[in-house]
Amino acid sequence: MFIYVIAILLLSIIALKGPTIGDQVLAIDVLTYISLVLFTLLSIYLKQPLLIVLVIPLALWVYSLDIYIAKYLERGDLGA
Q1: CB-CB contact of 74 with 22 (8 Å)
Q2: What is the number of structural domains in the chain?
Q3: Which residues make Cβ contacts (< 8 Å) with residue 65, sequence separation at least 6?
Q4: What is the mean pLDDT of residues 34-42?
């Protein structure tokens, strides 16, 4: 658990002060996926399937944000 705390702190610093936008996006992605894993483990431990239902849309939302950010960085706009 200590390693997760250190990773979250370091990734938070990178997300706030990253050298490039790509590094910031990657740090936010990793933070989100770490939290998804922790929510999943918590759901299994507490035997509450409702948390799993919340994890799936959050993972899809982060994936769609990655696509939009990549499109914006490549083209400069989010148009069709």
Answers
A1: no
A2: 1
A3: none
A4: 91
58 domain residue, yes or no: yes
Burial 3-26 (b: 16+ CB within 10 A, else e): eeeeeeeebeebbeebeeeeebbb
End-to-end Cα, the chain, rounded Å:
43
Q: Is 80 a domain residue? A: no
Distance between CA 22 and CA 25 in Å, rounded? 5
As a whole number of angstroms, the distance between CA 28 and CA 52 comes to 20
pLDDT of residue 79: 64
For residues 22-45, average pLDDT? 92
Give a yes or no: residue 22 inside a domain.
yes
CB 39 within 8 A of CB 54: yes
pLDDT at 21 > cutoff 90? no
| pLDDT given for residue 34 in this prediction | 92
